[in-house]
Structures are given as structure tokens and as C-alpha cells.
Amino acid sequence: MRRKPMTIAEFLRSQENQQFYWARSFRGWERFAAARPNATHSALATLEREQRVSFLITQNVDGLHQQAGSTRVLDLHGRNDRVICLDCRHVIEREALQQVLHTLNRKWLLRRSESPSAQLADGDSELSREDTSDFQIAACNVCGGVLKPDVVFFGESVPADVVAMAMGQVESSDGLLVVGSTLTVWSGYRFALAASRLSIPIAIINRGATRADELAFLKVDDECGAVLSAVPPSTSKGRNESDSTPEHSNEYHPRS
Fold this sequence. Notes:
Structural class: alpha/beta
CATH class of the largest domain: Alpha Beta
CATH architecture of the largest domain: 3-Layer(aba) Sandwich
Strand order of the largest sheet: 4-3-5
Mean pLDDT: 88
Number of strands: 8
Oligomer: single chain
Low-confidence stretches: 238-256
Shape: elongated
CATH topology of the largest domain: Rossmann fold
Radius of gyration: 20 Å
Distance between the termini: 31 Å
Number of domains: 2
């Protein structure tokens, strides 16, 4: 909350803005990539294995649900471990780009080795415009186009095919569980509205108020990991595998 995230319009406006973004992201990537699943991620993966959660829609971009063992995941806002060319739509792994940026910026790194920057939770690093003015950005190795993390920036819309996939899962569900989101932004709130219109019960676990509290039949105001970890193990065998696996199975990567 200390600063306003860069919008897609700002990112595209100038090379200076892209240098500012990529330099900060480059310095913050190591810490971001080292993150590991927490109790909430693990509990949701367990609920999937027990066939009590059939599909997971996440607004996070860190891939930690998949690391925890969830296999039926839709990354609503994309993945920060992928990079996409805005011109030809070619996708590469973020680690590969990190190596390229490291090679391009050896002198830049040496000049800043004695001035460590604050690491922020979203994979960013605290650097000034002056610090990033000589940072060398990389172009697409296929067409020379502009590269950007394969995530939805502020000011961008979630791709229509991703929204349709998520909405289809909500509409065919027995219930909607909201975990650790205020649903402030439309990209997530729309699914609570859809469930409410279809009389699909909504349960929410979140610290503090959410935008969908009035739509929920159950609201638990508590820490998500503690609540989900306290759910007793399933004593039933669950549904047959043929009944529980929708047409679109496994992890969903619409643009990879």
C-alpha cells in the first residue's frame, strides 16, 4: 500500500518506465521466486485430493497453489514466472529472462552492489528513477518486441477466454468458497455475483470485510490457514473420479 502499482498505460508509455519497472522487478525476483506455500495453500491442496474442492481460481501470480499440490488451478491474473511479448505473444520462462538481464546489466549490478534495496512482497524492489535510468531492458528474441510479465497489470482486462473458463466452473459448482480476498476488484467479485444470481451458496474466509459479505451464507473472519487447517479430514470416499473431473482438466494455461 506504500505506492501505486504501475499501470499498463504507464508501462507502454515510454522506455524509461519499462526500465523503471524491469530494474525493480529484476532485483526483487530472487526473493519472490524463493517463496514457498503456506498453510492455506497446503490445506486447499488437501481439500482437492479429498474431492471437496473441484477447482481453484486464484488472483495470485506466484504459482504457490501448484507448488502445494493443487492441480486444477486457473491463474486468473496470469503467472509472474512467465514473460510474454506484447507484439508476437511469444512466451518464455522468467528465469531465462533473468539470466539475459543479468548479462546485460553486469556493470549496473556492480555499481549498486554496495547499496542494497528494500525488497517488497510483490516481487518488486525499492529503487528510484535515478537508480534505473541506465538499466538495460531485453527485447523479444523472436521479433524484437516489448516484453512484459505474463500477468494482468492494473488497467488491463482479464482475457475473455480465462473469464469464460472461470465462469463455467463457478456456474457448474455446488458452492463457492472465497479464501483470503476482499473481492475489491471486479475480476474476482464478478464470480461471487454470478454464484449469488444462480443461488449457489457462498462461504467466505477472510480477515476483515469483503465486498461480497452480504451475498454469503457463511462468513468466517479469521486467518485462512488456521481455519482451513482445522477442517477435519474427509471420512467419505468422495465422488467417483469420472463424476468429479470436468471436461477441462489439469492446470489451465491459456497463453502458454
